[in-house]
Design goal:
Residues 9-94 form the Large ribosomal subunit protein bL25 L25 domain. Residues 103-188 form the Large ribosomal subunit protein bL25 beta domain. This is Large ribosomal subunit protein bL25. GO terms for molecular function: 5S rRNA binding; structural constituent of ribosome. It is elongated, with a radius of gyration of 23 Å. A hairpin with a 6-residue loop joins strand 5 and strand 6. It is of the alpha+beta class and 204 residues long. Helices cover 18% and strands 39% of the residues. It folds into 2 domains: 3-97, Beta Barrel (Ribosomal Protein L25, Chain P), CATH 2.40.240; 104-186, Ribosomal protein L25, C-terminal domain (RNA Polymerase Alpha Subunit, Chain A, domain 2). The N and C termini lie far apart (64 Å). The protein has 5 helices and 13 strands. The chain has a 6-stranded mixed barrel. The protein has a 4-stranded mixed sheet with strand order 10-7-9-12. The longest helix has 12 residues, at 192-203. It has helices spanning 17-25, 47-54, 116-119, 171-174, 192-203; strands at 3-9, 28-34, 41-46, 64-68, 71-82, 89-96, 103-112, 123-126, 130-135, 144-147, 156-158, 169-170, 181-186.
Length: 204
Amino acid sequence: MSYTLTTVARAADEQGKGSSRRLRKANLIPAIVYGGDAEPLSVSVKLNELVKALQDESFFSSVTTLAIDGNDQEVIIKALQRHPSKGTPLHVDFQRVVRGQTMHFTVPVHFTGTAKGIKAGGILQTNVTELHINCLPRQLPEAIEVDVTGLEIGDLLRFSDIKLADGITIVELDSNATDRVVVSVQAPTVSADSETSEESTDAE
């Protein structure tokens, strides 16, 4: 999915805490655009457009177009600061997209299917909600799907077990980090009360 946000460049005297408060009162959110060969650029984003985009999970893993004073720039969202209690956006960091250059993205993980072990009474334990990947912007998926259908009780999947399209790699594996467990099916836990009840029944 593609997104377009209307943005306006901010002059040097329109920056700082006081300016940011004035922008928010005008339903504008301060933001910074950086990366590529250009200098960092301070801009403001329309609050209603940003809030609408944030309602979609795929916004964080999509290339977004910023319409900056009539000039379009492709970016990805890299950081979002929210109000600690209200949850409203306070500031956004955007990184420019350089076509043909591999970039680091964060994408959500969706677990699909029903594990065989669940049908046998097991418990599905998921350890990640998102993946850090390297790929070209045109290869960026909205989400990574992990099929758990074949997992029995005691089975697990690691980073290296995830099937990715050609050209997409997992950052942790690229850096020789731990091949982390992504999902597993655990045996059901039997409580002490249940064991006592069963023993009492057997005794009768």
